[in-house]
Amino acid sequence: MNHWQTRPQLTGAFPPAGRWPEPLHRGLAQLQRLTPPQSLTLLGVSGGADSMALLVVATLCQTRADHTRRFGVISLDHQLQSGTAEVAAAVATIATRLGLEPVITRALDLPETGTGGLEATARVGRLEAFAQGAHTTGAQAVALGHTADDQAEQVLLGLVRGSGPRSLAGIAETTTYSELNHPLHVVRPFLGISRAETEQICHWAGIEPWQDPMNTDPRILRARIRHQVLPGLEQLGPTVRSGLLATAAIAAEDAEYLDAEAHRRYRMLAQIHTATIRFDLQAVRDLPAALGHRVIGKAVTELGGTRPSRERTLAVMELARARPGSSAGPIQLAGGVAARRNRGQNPGEYDTLELFTVPSSRS
Ligand SMILES: Nc1ncnc2c1ncn2[C@@H]1O[C@H](COP(=O)(O)OP(=O)(O)OP(=O)(O)O)[C@@H](O)[C@H]1O
């Protein structure tokens, strides 16, 4: 595999004779644990080493290990660089040769790049296409090839962007996206497998994966983290990667607790009316910041607004804490929601914090 691979290839008979490499056994066990039996799972396959290894593991699961699970493939052409339609077609050829079906290839018309940049836009477009593919084929889940290396990179990305535990928790083993046009259940069986191991699985299977030029494009932050930052950090010692993975696991536990506690407080405190959610001002003041951000964020999204940044929820908490004579708002939040203090029972005093939808003519 020392030349630049412009599309994935299967070079020999499949499966090869001989013992399976050890990471293949681990990947198979995780795939079986995470996918429902007696059902179809679609594999998201880009043609890179991680998802081609997933294709290998799923094929062996279906044909050798467990006849109750079926796997199909969905390969999307983001059309962000030349040659990607050929990559998706090559994935389809290999998947069909391995006996997987259905095999779906789709060109993605990405919407205008939003505030999160090209990567975020591609991600949303991809999820919608996976959801559509699962819906039309009756698949119960979509499996993706994220690895332990992706996880370590994700933690570093979270750190440099300034994130709380939800983001530092990195990539989840399972996610259900209910906000898409069709609900989508995603599983990631390779989070305990390194990229070197997915390459080992491909090599064993006689697959030469596609090498996506964007993975080494220095203009992309993730690529710089992968090729410059992480190798640099690893000079600090042999436990850098495992330390980052432990950070993700600890942050996931903390985020789960904080989210559940914020949800409980929200249910206790929120007075819900049409287009308005009110809180007792003192109760908001008493919330620890970690919960205040979440409770206010939840009220905004319940009203149909966009999840606000930490800076915006901080502004709302400051409004709640401000002295009686100072401004009562409103503070505009993203997605047509605003916050203000309101006078209540006691004359001259503010006693509620109110989040409300702004009529569209004024927003
Ligand atoms: N164009 C695509 N079509 C289908 N699935 C995709 C596509 N791009 C990414 N995926 C899925 O999402 C996972 C993570 O995507 P990411 O872009 O981070 O890829 P990666 O780490 O380079 O992995 P790979 O080596 O499989 O390309 C992939 O392993 C694959 O399962």
Verbal overview:
- The protein has 363 residues and is an alpha/beta fold.
- 47% of the residues lie in helices and 17% in strands.
- It has helices at 22-34, 49-65, 84-98, 117-137, 148-161, 165-168, 195-205, 221-233, 240-269, 281-286, 289-302, 310-321; strands at 9-10, 39-44, 69-77, 103-107, 141-143, 174-177, 184-187, 207-208, 271-273, 276-280, 331-333, 337-343, 350-357.
- Helix 11 (289-302) crosses helix 12.
- Adenosine-5'-triphosphate binds at residues 44-46, 48-51, 74-76, 78, 144-146, 150, 212, 215.
- Residues 44-46, 48-51, 74-76, 78, 144-146, 150, 212, 215 line the site of adenosine-5'-triphosphate (ATP).
- GO terms for molecular function: ATP binding; tRNA(Ile)-lysidine synthase activity.
Any descriptors?
single chain, 363 residues, alpha/beta, 6-stranded mixed sheet, 5-stranded antiparallel sheet, 12 helices, 13 strands, elongated, binds adenosine-5'-triphosphate
Query: Mean pLDDT across all residues, rounded?
Result: 92
How would you spell out the order of helices and strands? EHEHEHEHEHHEEHEHHEEHHHEEE
Q: How many β-strand runs? A: 13
Head-to-tail CA distance between termini: 56 Å
β-sheet strand percentage: 15-25%
Structural class: alpha/beta
How many individual helices?
12
The dominant shape is elongated
Small-molecule binders here are: adenosine-5'-triphosphate
Main sheet characteristics: 6 strands, mixed
Proportion of residues in helical segments:
40-55%
